Amino acid sequence: MKKMPYLKAVVLEGLRRHPPGHLLLPHRVTEDTELGGYKVPKKGTVNFNAAEIGRDPRVWEEPMEFKPERFIGEGEEVEVDITGSRGIKMIPFGAGRRICPAIGLAMLHLEYFVVNMVNEFEWKEVEGDEVDLSEKLEFTVVMKYPLKARVVPRRRRRRHILVMA
Ligand code: HEM
């Protein structure tokens, strides 16, 4: 998978445009503090809007478009820092001390999952049921209109059509 930069770029673009946690987890300040000109009292709650950070037009060109190419630099390398250690551009896993400890595991699984789904199946729209990427807030953010797809196994011996809902 290391030799598949576009795969990584697709996963990153998914996390930028549709982070599973729009507000990450709430954080609590331990001292009276000032943040971006606002006074936050001790024990006050601070939420970080990761979804808006990933859509900031001052940082991202055409932020609402799904464009994995934005992550591919010269020499086909994937260029981005999602840990917030070199500046906050997108933070789907949070940043700093409480960053998701499973960031490496999660990225590996996402890439592994996507590559296998694409390698094993051909994905097509269900006629009259176009894919709508609107979001809905549940415990995490999910698709407002669950994906319906015609999924055709690529290997001939398993070639029967499945409809996923
Ligand atoms: C796509 C997958 C995942 C995403 C987007 C994600 C995202 C996040 C986010 C945003 C936080 C809060 C960070 C903050 O407060 O600033 C978090 C915390 C956490 N995540 Fe994940 N996570 C993912 C998968 C996982 C997995 C697979 C595990 C465990 C195997 C995991 C374990 C944890 C734990 C234990 C914390 C709490 C860390 C702390 O408060 O110190 N996450 N994650």
From TrEMBL:
<keyword id="KW-0349">Heme</keyword>
<dbReference type="InterPro" id="IPR051103">
    <property type="entry name" value="Plant_metabolite_P450s"/>
</dbReference>
<dbReference type="InterPro" id="IPR002401">
    <property type="entry name" value="Cyt_P450_E_grp-I"/>
</dbReference>
<protein>
    <recommendedName>
        <fullName>Cytochrome p450</fullName>
    </recommendedName>
</protein>
<keyword id="KW-0503">Monooxygenase</keyword>
<dbReference type="Pfam" id="PF00067">
    <property type="entry name" value="p450"/>
</dbReference>
<keyword id="KW-0472">Membrane</keyword>
<keyword id="KW-0479">Metal-binding</keyword>
<feature type="binding site" description="axial binding residue">
    <location>
        <position position="100"/>
    </location>
    <ligand>
        <name>heme</name>
    </ligand>
</feature>
<keyword id="KW-0812">Transmembrane</keyword>
<keyword id="KW-0408">Iron</keyword>
<comment type="similarity">
    <text>Belongs to the cytochrome P450 family.</text>
</comment>
<dbReference type="GO" id="GO:0016020">
    <property type="term" value="C:membrane"/>
</dbReference>
<keyword id="KW-0560">Oxidoreductase</keyword>
<dbReference type="InterPro" id="IPR001128">
    <property type="entry name" value="Cyt_P450"/>
</dbReference>
<keyword id="KW-1133">Transmembrane helix</keyword>
<dbReference type="InterPro" id="IPR036396">
    <property type="entry name" value="Cyt_P450_sf"/>
</dbReference>
<dbReference type="InterPro" id="IPR017972">
    <property type="entry name" value="Cyt_P450_CS"/>
</dbReference>
<dbReference type="GO" id="GO:0016709">
    <property type="term" value="F:oxidoreductase activity, acting on paired donors, with incorporation or reduction of molecular oxygen, NAD(P)H as one donor, and incorporation of one atom of oxygen"/>
</dbReference>
<dbReference type="GO" id="GO:0005506">
    <property type="term" value="F:iron ion binding"/>
</dbReference>
<dbReference type="GO" id="GO:0020037">
    <property type="term" value="F:heme binding"/>
</dbReference>
